[in-house]
């Protein structure tokens, strides 16, 4: 089955415009332009003496234990990437951490509740491209959970 | 004209039928395994940061009502589309609905890059018409330029995912080739620690070799669009191996892109191959029966 000139012309035009959008996205746009944004996963050049940051949330529970909050959908309902993308906002307004506690409590009603949350940044130092020593930790934000 | 025709090769409609079944079922898997937090976002829209498309189209903020409706519509339309009955109506529902589903899933400050080929595939599949419905469509050998265009679009998007990754690596370094010699894989492993990766941390040179192989492979990937037969298969296997390595080292699978590699496979040959095998098989038994009779006659002689 062959296409008519209009059907063929339209299709080729759509394909060419699509390729144009993809190239434009890769050359100048950001992730905001999804699905035509740049394919920037793991695209950065990390220097050999880089400090590698890893953000996590530590929780004190009503059972008196200190635990790392599982940052995924099944855990507290929020992914680590989301927390990392919004670290600046959370530092400015630690009340954003409330929803992490709420998410955990809703998904795990039978487990100890979080009473205090700390947003912590672990930093690993690279020396000549190799990991040097254990990471150092810094508390970025603290939030007393509202019951 | 040759350039124009490159976009519309005549390909058997059977391949479209197979892709519909696999991709619409994959969407259901995707909604539960990969982009699976869309309904959670409906419950907690506080972290919602609409992406460009959502702002342009004035899409409503996710809510329990609209994400639940989206979920039900998608499941029903995917199940219908996968049967190849009413594939175009179902397909025109799935394409915008799943695009919106993924948009919501990625509107939290983090965008994944593995959905380009799948989303575009869903938009091009319903453009293909066909006379046969349901089971009969899988073996349809009618070659169609409309089918070829849809297949070509999916192929281009699969390849673009790799090629544009290499472009992004050059761009992030200010258009310089520093990525393959950098400590990016070390960085990635430190942030996603697990046994295979941690063992590799002791051998940075191995990670550098992998980075070079990766970026050269990505940069050369468009060649696959022009390769044929066995050579194209080698190209596809290279990238499937690439994904296997990524999964082992970084726990990043890219399955929504991997499944779209099927657009390169001659799926339309499955039904004829299966029929030929069956008729060969029955042919063989006839042949054996004949030999048996001859043997009996000889024994009787």
UniProtKB/TrEMBL annotation, chain A:
**Superkingdom in the source lineage:** Bacteria
Q: What is this protein called?
A: Uncharacterized protein
Automatic annotation (TrEMBL), chain B:
Instruction: Tell me where it resides.
Output: Endomembrane system
Membrane spanning segments where? 6-29, 64-83, 89-104, 146-165, 172-189, 209-227, 234-264
Which top-level group of life is the source organism from?
Bacteria
State the membrane topology. Multi-pass membrane protein
Task: Give the HTTM-like domain ranges.
Answer: 3-269
Q: Which GO terms describe its cellular component?
A: endomembrane system
Provide the protein name: Vitamin K-dependent gamma-carboxylase-like protein
Concerning InterPro entries, the annotation shows: HTTM-like
The segment annotated Disordered runs over 281-301
Record keywords, A-Z:
Membrane, Transmembrane, Transmembrane helix
The answer to keyword Transmembrane helix applying to this record is yes
Give the compositionally biased regions (Basic and acidic residues): 281-294
Q: Does the keyword Transmembrane helix apply?
A: yes
